[in-house]
Amino acid sequence: MSATAGLRRIHTTILALIVAVATAVGLMVAGPGAVTADAEPRGWLRPDATGACEWDAHGWWVQRCDVWSPSMGRNIAVQIQPAARGGNAGYYLLDGLRATNHTNAWINDVNAAATFNNSNITLVMPIGGAGSFYADWNGPATYDLDNPVNYQWESFLTNELPAYLQQHFGVAWNNNAIAGLSMGGTAALNLAARYPDQFRQALSFSGYLTTTAPGAQTLLRMALWDAGGFNLNAMYGSMVSPRRFENDPFYNMDGLRGADNVYVSAGSGIPAREDAGILPQHVASAMFLEAVANLSTKAWSAKAVASGINVQQDYPSTGIHNWNQFGWQLNKTRPLVLDTMNAW
User: Would the keyword Acyltransferase turn up in this protein's UniProt record (predicted)?
Assistant: First the structure.
């Protein structure tokens, strides 16, 4: 063998090794399904505040990204499932009162990512915010002033996060839907009403939509304390603060008149067949919470219809305040969301 032929063979071998390594790396980065970025637009990790997002343990192409929030002075983790085919629509899913700092319950408890896996819409699932109602609070959220909790969720969701989503996931500022359960349902309607240019569609599943009705503030105060020692007065001020009424969906609905559609639902508070096996004490509290949500939602809806808002209502004959009810509504409204957002 000549020296030239030997060098040529060595060169070919090295080139083959480089291609093999590059292919292996590409498959590892591609995430679930081992699909390369060329074949699957979701198959690559976006940059975030700490360098790069990471694949979420729940799978289904979900990335866990740290997004810097200037208003809160820290990174906020967000679980994001990119649109299947590069669409620019976004669907914000807001958690309930006991949101954790580990995961958004929409993917942990019912796996919204599996439900919307083949849809051309980006799921946006912020992590954290227990007891926050996703609002900008007046002061520290808890009574522990030595370790102040700074809640500025409205600013994050409507000013800071959209810029990140547009830059790295192609989500348009003005092409979003927003939904939430319980506390998140209250927040979804409030945010959609205040930011109609951002949210075309709003959905509330078992939300509390008359937060300043007689007795409601007392129930909220008790719920916030039980959820983590949160101070209701630090949210919007005292009982007579105008901000409390400005953030009550019952009075804050004018901005929803131009929405493509609004959807509200709440079960009757009667346990469904799927609720069999749940501990009796949990059933009792979930029955009460859902019954209150039902009354609150119906009162809000009556005013919304009279105000000319395009609202769809659903009040199943059974269903209590739990993930059987919330997950069922998520699946039921999937066609409505995708039709409205043109994101099939």
Answer: yes
What pLDDT was estimated at residue 8? Answer: 44
Cα–Cα distance for residue pair 308/26, rounded to 1 Å: 52
Can 307 be counted among the known catalytic residues? Answer: no
Q: Write the CB contacts of 227 (distance below 8 Å, at least 6 apart in sequence).
A: 97, 98, 130, 131
Of the residues 119, 168, 290, 301, only one is catalytic, namely 290
Active site residue 321: yes
Considering the chain, what percentage of its residues have pLDDT values greater than 90? Answer: 86
Query: φ, ψ for residue 180 (rounded to 5)?
Result: -160, 160
How many Å apart are CA 59 and CA 257, to the nearest integer?
37
- Taken in order 40, 43, 44, 46, the sign of the CA dihedral is positive
Whole-structure pTM value: 0.89
**Does 290 participate in catalysis according to the annotation?**
yes
User: Which of 119, 132, 182, 301 is flagged as catalytic?
Assistant: 182
63 HSE (CA, 13 A, CB side): 23
